[in-house]
Amino acid sequence: MKEQRFATYEEMSRQAAEAIAAVVRAKPDAVLGLATGSTPVGTYRHLVRMHREDGLDFSRVTTVNLDEYLGLPGSHEQSYRHFMEEHLFRHVNVDPSRTFLPDGLAEDPAEEGRRYDALVESLGGTDIQLLGIGLDGHIGFNEPCDEFVRPTHAVDLDPSTIRANARFFASESEVPRRAITMGMGAIFGARRILLLAAGEAKLSIFEAAARGAITPRVPASILQLHPDASFFFTRDRGE
Ligand code: F6R
């Protein structure tokens, strides 16, 4: 696992976008594992710029996102599908039919989890997986628990995650209580992992994930065992 620190959010985002662009240039039909949240917004901004200015070509790329709220349709303003459309998909030439997220309206989340894992497997896994990290060490919505969960599965969100995500909703009561997330199997199966963390508040969990005990109480810590994982950190939140 490689750890890199950056002076600014901007510089971290540029480097993250460069890493993703390098994968796409080397393999035009790459499968990109993508994340939502505040942290990757700068990375997506740079990818859009590279598409516009340098002709970075997404026409053969496939994307698979980590997670989606349960109960929200993709058209909902706070759905992760909507987030991805706003920050990346509609600004680049990715084929909309090759952009995948778990279905937040799935009637049977366990069945949806199996379908999603089969999809990722049929794509041959992801070439690079972009990740943020929650204040409690979650990746995707794999919250701290007693054991690492391998398949894509439904989760009850941790109260700290609901509080942290309330900033995107009119009130905390509107934040969905459940989500469906890629499990550790699909995340860890990525050929390359890029985890980003920004802001002083993330420093202690970042260090626990990068150098602390490997435990499902800090879900991101398992990435210490990945053969090609990079952890990027900046104190700058970029606001
Ligand atoms: C989002 C996701 C989450 C976030 C994490 C950090 O798809 O999987 O694990 O990466 O909650 O969120 P931000 O970047 O908003 O601090």
Q: What would your notes on this structure say?
A:
The chain is globular. The protein starts with a strand and ends in a 5-residue tail after the last strand. The strands form two sheets. The chain has a seven-stranded parallel sheet, sandwiched between helices. Strands 4-8-7 form a three-stranded antiparallel sheet. The protein has seven helices and ten strands. It has 239 residues and is an alpha/beta fold. α7 (203-211) links the parallel β9 and β10 (229-234). 31% of the residues lie in helices and 18% in strands.
Question: Main attributes?
Answer:
binds fructose -6-phosphate; alpha/beta; 31% helix; 239 residues
Topology (SSEs and partners):
Blueprint: E1 2-6, H1 9-26, E2 31-34, H2 41-54, E3 62-65, E4 67-69, H3 80-87, E5 99-100, H4 109-122, E6 128-131, E7 153-156, H5 159-165, E8 178-181, H6 184-188, E9 193-198, H7 203-211, E10 229-234
Parallel strand pairs: 1-10, 2-3, 2-6, 3-5, 6-9, 9-10
Antiparallel strand pairs: 4-8, 7-8
Helix pairs in contact: 1-2
The structure holds fructose -6-phosphate.
